[in-house]
Amino acid sequence: MKLSTFVFAGIVLSMTTQLYADELPLGSVAIYSNGQVKKLVQNGPDWTLWESARKRLYKESYLPYLPTLEYRRFPAERGGYTRRVVSGDAAQLVPFGDQQSVTFTIDRMKSDGSSDQRRWRCNYEGTGQESLMETNWAVQLFSCSRFGSSSGGAVKLKEQREISYAPELGIVVKEILSRPRKGTKVTRLQYLLSPQEASYQRIADLVKTLRN
């Protein structure tokens, strides 16, 4: 099997060329351009669980274009939700399947028992490159649009996401989120630390650098 190498903030590790997020070591830490810090705490068969610095939990699908599957706040706080695909076959999008475009519906159940359904269309947009920690990584590009209905029944665009996913790292490295009347927000992965490097001081120094 062909091997490749990638760098965790200065530590070179040997990995197979086909890497997905469930192969990231537990305890890996992702630091984003908005200052958010997440630590990988659990791997599932087709998902990963990340914990933020505020002890909030995010369950992410192995399909990088799906929105967060579950969000849980600290046990003492109220709030959170779970999401699941209730129609359509989201897993058929290239490169996981053979479709260039897929449409699916997600049911979102809030912690108070209320729920709503949201319709998505995602497209595979090809490949590109993104820079992370002074290295250029090959990325797979996806675009996703969420639609809703107006009071008059017309279909309206509610949200658009552009996703850059690095398969060798097993993680989304850039997301552009656009919402009508709310503007556009770009979030980049700035650092990916190995468990050995993810000390409190190291993380604090990197976050401080981002904010200065």
Provide the descriptors you would attach to this structure in a database record.
YmcC-like fold; mainly beta; 6% helix; disordered N terminus; two-stranded antiparallel ribbon
Order of helices and strands: EEEEEEEEEEEEEEH
The overall average pLDDT, rounded, is 86
Low-pLDDT residue spans: 1-22
Please count the helical segments.
1
Distance between the termini: 43 Å
Number of strands: 14
Q: Which structural class should the secondary elements be placed in?
A: mainly beta
CATH architecture: Beta Barrel
CATH third-tier fold name: YmcC-like fold
CATH class category name = Mainly Beta
CA-based shape: globular
Please describe the biggest sheet, giving its number of strands, its sense, and whether it closes into a barrel.
12 strands, antiparallel, barrel
> Strand order of the main beta sheet, please?
3-4-5-6-7-8-9-10-11-12-13-14
In short:
The chain contains 1 helix and 14 strands; from the N terminus they run E-E-E-E-E-E-E-E-E-E-E-E-E-E-H. The chain is mostly beta strands and about 210 residues long.
Explain what this protein looks like in three dimensions.
The chain has one domain (3-200): YmcC-like fold. It is globular. Residues 1-22 have low confidence and may be disordered. It has one helix at residues 200-211, and strands at residues 3-8, 11-16, 29-32, 37-43, 47-52, 57-61, 70-72, 80-87, 101-110, 115-132, 135-149, 155-166, 171-179, 183-193. The strands form 2 sheets. The chain has a 12-stranded antiparallel beta barrel with strand order 3-4-5-6-7-8-9-10-11-12-13-14. Strands 1-2 form a two-stranded antiparallel sheet. With 212 residues, it is mostly beta strands.
